[in-house]
């Protein structure tokens, strides 16, 4: 370091720049939150478990761990102030196999920022049975875990089959405020059935004066249900017209759009995961009231984390995808090589005295 300090400024810059260059391209790092902005972090599917009984290491006898999940959670805990993180949302597939060892690790990871920042969880298809029994999720992330916090709004009580299906925090909502704006955010389980959507519509109507966000595990990916493995990658992308959970009761993302999302004029964005073979995708559509709903998929299995930086003074939202260990920005992936699909922005009416997103 003393050697660098004795060099002329131009040489210092040259040396520091060379450290940041890989394959001839300067690697950029995430910046601190600018004044007046606030951030929401989206945790992609956290299925990269290692150790005994995991899909990734079936022959291992080691203790179950999840280094990627832990890195995500630790970065969030360490950067709440620096990035003005006001909410964290998990898109679901919290575990890869629905069994206690993985759920124990998942809770240990979420405990790193529990009580430090508001958060919610969407229940993915790996987090319950094919018939929608989310008992283990409810055991490790029950409603009682959150009821002490003023930002926790509540949860759906459960289906006619009992609270083990759709109940006890499997579908929840949270309330938070930032930048002079009030938000309601719903976390809906994968392929939420009609009874859950009736509840969601009621919650959204009750808080119609707040800007609304929704996280639900399935959203965008292969438009039609894949027949072959390559269809997950090469099939036409869109709002999926097929579903995985709840049998005949389950709603596809397209049906959820028709029965819920499109009806609410204050809905700004819908976040999803589920499709690692799509990786990242963004789209927008106009709802019934003329409002633009942004639909945003993020499912990075290799460790990338997604943050949405809201900048009210500029009426825009920036999507920032980065490695939490190095804070280097994602410049493309094998499936999605265009860096503009990982670092982008979209307009959003965020003036405190204005109406919802138009």
Quick description:
The protein has helices at residues 2-6, 9-19, 67-78, 100-110, 135-140, 194-206, 231-234, 253-259, and strands at residues 21-22, 25-26, 38-43, 85-90, 119-121, 152-155, 172-178, 181-188, 211-216, 220-222, 237-239, 267-272, 280-286, 292-298, 305-311, 316-322, 344-347. It is an alpha/beta fold and 358 residues long.
Describe this structure in words.
- With 358 residues, the chain is an alpha/beta fold.
- It folds into two domains: 1-30, no CATH class; 33-347, Metallo-dependent phosphatases (Purple Acid Phosphatase, chain A, domain 2, 4-Layer Sandwich), CATH 3.60.21.10.
- It has eight helices and 17 strands.
- It has helices spanning 2-6, 9-19, 67-78, 100-110, 135-140, 194-206, 231-234, 253-259, and strands at 21-22, 25-26, 38-43, 85-90, 119-121, 152-155, 172-178, 181-188, 211-216, 220-222, 237-239, 267-272, 280-286, 292-298, 305-311, 316-322, 344-347.
- It has a seven-stranded mixed beta sheet, covered by helices on one side. A six-stranded mixed beta sheet has the order 5-4-3-15-16-17, covered by helices on one side. The protein has a two-stranded antiparallel ribbon with strand order 1-2.
- Helix 3 (67-78) runs parallel beside helix 4.
- The relative contact order is 0.13.
């Amino acid at each position: 370091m003393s050697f660098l300090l004795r060099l002329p400024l131009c040489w210092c810059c040259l040396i520091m720049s060379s450290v940041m260059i890989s394959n001839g391209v300067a690697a950029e790092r995430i910046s601190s939150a600018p004044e007046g902005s606030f951030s929401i972090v989206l945790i992609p599917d956290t299925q990269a478990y290692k150790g005994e009984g995991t899909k990734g290491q079936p022959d291992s006898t080691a203790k179950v761990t999840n280094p990627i999940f832990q890195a995500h959670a630790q970065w969030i805990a360490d950067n709440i102030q620096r990035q003005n993180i006001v909410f964290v949302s998990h898109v679901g597939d919290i575990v890869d196999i629905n069994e206690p060892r993985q759920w124990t690790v998942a809770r240990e990871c979420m405990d790193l920022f529990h009580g430090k920042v508001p958060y919610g969880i969407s229940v993915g298809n790996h987090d319950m049975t094919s018939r929608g029994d989310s008992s283990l999720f409810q055991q490790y992330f029950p409603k009682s875990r959150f009821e002490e916090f003023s930002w926790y709004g509540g949860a759906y009580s459960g289906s006619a089959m009992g609270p083990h299906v759709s109940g006890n925090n499997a579908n929840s909502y949270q309330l938070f405020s930032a930048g002079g704006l009030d938000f309601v955010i719903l976390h809906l389980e994968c392929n939420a059935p009609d009874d859950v959507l009736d509840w969601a519509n009621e919650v959204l109507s009750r808080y119609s004066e707040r800007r609304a966000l929704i996280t639900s595990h399935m959203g965008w990916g292969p438009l039609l249900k894949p027949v072959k493995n390559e269809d997950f990658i090469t099939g036409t992308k869109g709002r999926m017209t097929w579903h995985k959970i709840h049998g005949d009761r389950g709603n596809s993302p397209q049906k959820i759009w028709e029965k819920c999302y499109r009806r609410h004029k204050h809905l700004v964005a819908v976040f999803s995961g589920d499709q690692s073979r799509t990786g990242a995708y963004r789209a927008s559509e106009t709802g019934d009231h003329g409002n633009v709903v942004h639909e945003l998929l993020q499912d990075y299995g290799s460790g990338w984390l997604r943050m949405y930086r809201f900048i009210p003074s500029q009426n825009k939202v920036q999507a920032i995808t980065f490695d939490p260990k190095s804070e280097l920005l994602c410049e493309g992936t094998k499936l999605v090589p265009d860096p503009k699909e990982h670092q982008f922005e979209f307009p959003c009416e965020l003036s405190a005295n204005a109406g919802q997103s138009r």
